[in-house]
Amino acid sequence: xxxxxxxxxxxxxxxxxxxxxxxxxxxxxxxxxxxxxxxxxxxxxxxxxxxxxxxxxxxxxxxx
Length: 64
Fold this sequence. Notes:
Shape: elongated
Structural class: mainly alpha
Largest sheet: none
């Protein structure tokens, strides 16, 4: 799925914040799962169009 650099950066910052709270040994697996889940949800929200910031906000709101 194609997303803007802005959205990629926002996702990366969110993931970094989450990973910082986890033990180092869990971070690699958690990153992979979190990335996959976020991008899958973005695709679901956006449908046939390119995801926008509103879609990203909705996804991240679900995560908290």
